[in-house]
Amino acid sequence: MQQSVMKAWWESSHMAGGNAAYVEEMYEAYLDNAQSVSEQWRAIFDNLPKVDGVSVESKHSVIREQFRSLAALGPAARAGGAVAAASNNTSDEKQVKVLQLINAFRFRGHQHANLDPLQLWKQPRVRDLELSHHNLSEQDFHTVYNVGSYAIGKETLPLGELFQSLNRTYCGSIGTEYMHITDTEQKRWLQNRIESVQAKPEISRDEKVAILKGLVAADGMEKYLGAKFPGAKRFSLEGGDSLVPMLKGLISHAGACGTKEVVIGMAHRGRLNVLVNVLGKNPSVLFDEFAGKHDHSLGAGDVKYHAGYSSDFATPGGNVHLALAFNPSHLEIVNPVVIGSVRARLDRRNCTDGSLVLPITIHGDSAIAGQGVVQETFNMSQTRGFKVGGTVRIVINNQVGFTTSKTEDTRSTQYCTDIAKMVQAPILHVNADDPEAVLFVTKLALDYRNQFKRDVVIDLVCYRRHGHNEADEPNATQPLMYQKIKKHPVPRELYADQLVAEGSIEAHEIEKLISDYRAALDHGACVLEEWRPMTEHSVDWSPYLGHDWDMTYAGDISVEKLKELGTKLCTYPQDYELQSRVAKIYQDRESMIAEEKPLDWGMAENLAYASIVESGNKIRMTGQDSGRGTFFHRHAVLHNQKDGSAHMPLAHISAEQGKIEIFDSVLSEAAVLAFEFGYATAEPGCLTIWEAQFGDFANGAQVVIDQFLSSGEAKWGRLCGLTLLLPHGYEGQGPEHSSARLERFLQMSADHNWQVCVPSTPAQVFNMLRRQILRPTRKPLIVMSPKSLLRHPLAVSSMEELAEGVFHNVIGEVDELDPKQVKRVVMCSGKVYYDLLEQRRKNEQTDVAIIRIEQLYPFPQAQILEVVSQFSHVNDWVWCQEEPQNQGAWYCSQHNFWSCIPESAKLKYAGRDASASPAVGYISVHNQQQADLIADALTIK
């Protein structure tokens, strides 16, 4: 080919500019049928290079790079290459433009889709979807073009027919966003499913009637509640009625695909409707809740639109167990809880691909865009420690956030679902007034999730017939929207009219469906045909009910067994090369096993885990540094310095041991802690642990601690044995690395809701962890875990102390003091004890006794009274703490301290002054404060 001809061809619209995506379309057409492209294109593709003799035709990204590289060579170099001659003919140019048009609809068709039932959306004009933008016109409608990879089942179509098909597929009641996905297989799969039926498959009469029944139930429930309890808050589903047939269809299809359990998380909107019409809750029970009736034995309780529920649901594949998670008012926080629960259920079923348990999370449009925990949960979706094979995420998009409808006030993106693009999830927007389209995207979403084990989002675009709640007046803030809503028929009416018009059902049949449903509500019995008694749930909580926090248990273990476990803990592959500091730690651990050295914190903790898994129990631990330990003490996961491979000795304790998982988590507190809460509430047989990098960082998960962990049992009767390890202690590291905010946990302590412990020795942490799993009691355990004590020369234990098998809620005086000579008793918790002990010994004092309270809640009053009984003559008592006076245990537990001292005695505070900050940032100031508070505690005036 002459250089001038080659240059003219290359600089034509075929290859120049930003047409890489369209070159790919031509190439895909060539792969489908080589004769479908012109001779010039065929020559290019035939001469593409091969790697090691193997065609690279499936590597689309590589092909694109080859074209870009070729373009960069310049006309002369290209002229000497293997590119065949081509002529700049008009038909070939238009063929490329047709493929560009197809691609434009795939990319941007959703922006012209008919998504809003109210027709209020003002979508911008998208020129890419216009024929003229591609130098095409209606004059080309009768010209037949190759359609490339457009999956309509034909290789060629007249342009007019193709243009109609593209509009039906991408600009009807469904708007699909998937071209942001980089994986070609996923994109082609979605294209085949959507384009082959032009986003509107044929459905049977039975399916249509099932949809109608769901709409009748959704509408009937809301109207019944509105008439029976006018003005009562119910967070009506009206406007988003299609959610009911959507969920029923999703669960039914999941069961047909082999799913055994479905866990659902949702906020308020439509929750009561879902409880009755999807999970089968008895309407009479709901009506009693509206009437204010309740069982006084159920604790504090919660409002009805926070309640969870469980049932079994009949599907073509057998019964599926449903669980709707309890949810507080914090909107999206329930989502990681649901996914954690799903992970526990999958683990229990030994299912690694997610096929047996399906998570469904239902979001509000403003909440999914506005709540940071959504991003955190998406980020977890494919990580090793948190993935569940994908989540089906449904957005009830009623286009109003509380009272805010202007998108520029609720988000900075076009769609509320754009956050899902961070994990390349496909997003299926659908008009909720087209329930058949809703059913189509529902099945498509589940099939995608099952095929690719990834998240998928359905944006159910609807409206809200009432205000945020039924007492609100929406016209005050959305007058134009609510003028439209007032005149807009409900989805049931629209769909019923459609079915009557097409002859699928008679009008009198519809009236019968409506009257039958209302009669069922009047009767008060279950209205869900698919409801079945629960038999599919796979965990029994009955062994964990009705136990006191201080019940006795068999926790002792022989020294011989500890040595045996210790030997296994120190065993790793011979070819493993450990980092030098880690190697030294393991050498020291071998000395500890031989009782040549006392046990330190890291060894005692690992021995606790070894003994737990050796007895058949499971352990799951997550945290941002949990494998190594933030403070370089745990080293439960070893890393080979030669090849980076990991080895966990705890996974090789015995052939029949329980499973242990330790994951370094994503850099999140809220979503990860919520996930672990969900896991622990679904798996009572596992010691589930979350470790904060520093205890202060639990601030980022405060909503989980407040609304789930501390009050879940009181509100919902949900037992949970989750353990929180929160590094805590004042070592001069500043405000964000000192305090786990002990006072907050103590302030929320009531009703024996959890345990708050401050262990001070390796033996204490060993027996505390074992107690948490060996007792059948399932209460959260909050641990103020140490930092400097991990290597403190006095914070050591013997094998015998571990073997004793008892966690001491209080530890009395350890030095041989004459009780009669004691004039002051200092009570304390945690690291400050060692500062007090060392200074007292340095002072050679014998008139001050020091008592450690290792469990601050539930407060062990009886045990403390027994320990301090020898000091009944002492009138000078002190509570010493490192935290400022307005923090720590002083104010929250002072009443408990008073209850343990003689009536005539005085109780004094020794510690830092009250402070707005948890700790000072200057080491010199810290040291002076620490010295002052120790002196104040020990000096008798």
TrEMBL record:
Q: Which SMART domains would you find in this protein's record? A: Transket_pyr (SM00861)
GO CC annotation terms, alphabetical: cytosol; oxoglutarate dehydrogenase complex
Q: Which keywords has UniProt assigned to this entry? A: Oxidoreductase, Thiamine pyrophosphate
- Tell me the InterPro entries matching this sequence: 2-oxogl_dehyd_N, 2oxoglutarate_DH_E1, DH_E1, KGD_C_sf, ODO-1/KGD_C, THDP-binding, Transketolase-like_Pyr-bd
- List residues of the Transketolase-like pyrimidine-binding domain: 599-792
Q: Which CDD domains match?
A: TPP_E1_OGDC_like
Its needed co-factors are:
thiamine diphosphate
UniProt-listed Enzyme Commission number(s)? 1.2.4.2
For whether the record's keyword set contains Oxidoreductase, the answer is: yes
* UniProt key word Oxidoreductase: yes
**What's one Pfam family the UniProt record gives for this protein?**
Transket_pyr
GO MF annotations for this entry? oxoglutarate dehydrogenase (succinyl-transferring) activity; thiamine pyrophosphate binding
Protein origin, superkingdom: Bacteria
Question: Which Gene Ontology BP annotations are present?
Answer: tricarboxylic acid cycle
Q: Matching PANTHER family, A to Z?
A: 2-OXOADIPATE DEHYDROGENASE COMPLEX COMPONENT E1, 2-OXOGLUTARATE DEHYDROGENASE
What's the stated role of this polypeptide? Answer: E1 component of the 2-oxoglutarate dehydrogenase (OGDH) complex which catalyzes the decarboxylation of 2-oxoglutarate, the first step in the conversion of 2-oxoglutarate to succinyl-CoA and CO(2).
Recorded family membership: Belongs to the alpha-ketoglutarate dehydrogenase family.
User: Do you know which NCBIfam families this protein is assigned to?
Assistant: 2oxo_dh_E1, PRK09404.1, PRK12270.1
Q: What is this protein called?
A: 2-oxoglutarate dehydrogenase E1 component
Q: Identify the species of origin.
A: Paraglaciecola hydrolytica
